[in-house]
Design brief:
Strand order of the largest sheet: 1-2
Radius of gyration: 12 Å
Largest sheet: 2 strands, antiparallel
Number of strands: 2
Bound molecules: zinc ion
Structural class: mainly alpha
Number of helices: 4
Helix content: 40-55%
Mean pLDDT: 96
Shape: globular
Order of helices and strands: HEEHHH
Low-confidence stretches: none
């Protein structure tokens, strides 16, 4: 992650980290994966495996993502849906 955060952006990212994984549904706390660095409302809640896993993860071979037939934008939709449900 780079760039600066406003307090509102910090609050949003914290909320994202409390959500279940947007790909496999594993209960949080989750990692916050940025779709675009510096755009803090494009963060996706991901478990360690779906995030950094060498086989499963977005930053790896993306196997979990292929199985779920998901791209980052689908995961972002799930993250926002989950937060909205909780509000
Ligand atoms: Zn996951
Ligand atoms: Zn990431």
């Amino acid at each position: 992650m780079n760039g600066s955060y406003s307090q509102a952006e910090r609050d949003w990212v914290q909320l994202v980290k409390e959500q279940p994984c947007s790909v496999c549904g594993q209960a949080g706390p989750s990692d916050a994966h940025h779709i675009k660095q510096g755009l803090h409302y494009t963060v996706v809640a991901l478990c360690k495996s779906c995030h950094q896993g060498s086989k499963m993860g977005w930053h790896g071979e993306k196997a979990a993502w292929r199985i779920a037939k998901m791209e980052e934008i689908d995961a972002l939709n799930e993250t926002i849906k989950s937060i909205h449900r909780g509000l």
